[in-house]
Amino acid sequence: QMQVLIVLTSHDRLGNTGDKTGYWLWNFSPQLEEFCAPYYVFKDAGAKITVASPKGGQPPVDPKSEVEPFLTAYTQRFAQDEEAKKVVAETIRLEQALDACASYDALFFPGGHGPLWDLADSSVNLKLIQSFWTAQKPIGAVCHGPAVLVKAVAADGTPIVKGKRVTGFTNAEEQAVGLAKEVPWLLEEALKNKGADFSGIQDWAPHVVCHGKLITGQNPASSEQTAKELVRAVTC
């Protein structure tokens, strides 16, 4: 049975705005969400799913993702899925995930702005990514999820994204949501500075980039396809 590890942020404050953030549970209707769509793609593919976060327990949900017009049909499935809600409410700590990393087949990072503040700098998370990379296991990330790759390095110290084709939330999309000056750094710019071959298309359009075992999606609309490519990378 395929085993997938999903890592969520534990950070709940959006810079100096005073606004709350977290991981993005739902997405712009009728497109698909960054956590729920991948969760059900993995589940429907027969995977056993483990969810981890830096602090463990219930991770914060970006409150903007739970109100109209961000709700989707997937909210109905998740709202009625007690097993899924229990998995999310009882996330394991990253240290536990690192200890058990040999048992997982793939690693996935949803977005939300939270990862820019905690997961991107977490030494435990960076060790987790390096372990998957060294073992040549697929790593997927969508929207702001690729922030975790900015400081990630291979065992020889080379940035994982150097020379790799990747995507993620673009500078234009960050500016469009009015948060370009609130985030600690712009994802597109940071990935390019690490030597990544970054590509983005029009704002909010689905865009997924695969480079070997590294799979990235540009924005929330790319969530489902990013997850499907991750499953394909495990099974091929």
Task: Explain how this protein is built.
The protein has eight helices and nine strands. Strands 3-2-1-4-5-9-8 form a seven-stranded mixed beta sheet. It has a two-stranded parallel ribbon with strand order 6-7. The chain has helices spanning 36-44, 74-79, 82-89, 94-99, 123-134, 171-176, 187-193, 223-235; strands at residues 3-7, 48-53, 92-93, 106-109, 139-142, 165-166, 197-198, 208-211, 214-217. The chain is an alpha/beta fold and 236 residues long. The protein is globular, with a radius of gyration of 16 Å.
Could you provide a short overview of the structure?
This protein is 28% helix and 14% strand. The protein is an alpha/beta fold and 236 residues long. Helix 1 (36-44) links the parallel strand 1 (3-7) and strand 2.
Task: Name a few traits of the molecule.
236 residues, 8 helices, globular, 9 strands, 7-stranded mixed beta sheet, 14% strand, two-stranded parallel ribbon, alpha/beta, 28% helix
Helix content: 25-40%
Q: From the structure provided, what is the oligomeric state, counting identical versus distinct chains? A: single chain
* Strand numbers in spatial order across the main sheet: 3-2-1-4-5-9-8
The count of DSSP E runs of length 2 or more, i.e. the number of strands, is: 9
Tell me the radius of gyration: 16 Å
Shape: globular
* Helical stretch tally: 8
Distance between the termini: 14 Å
Low-confidence stretches: 26-32
> What is the typical, i.e. mean, pLDDT?
89
Structural class: alpha/beta
> SSE string, helix = H, strand = E?
EHEHHEHEHEEHHEEEH
Beta content comes to 5-15%
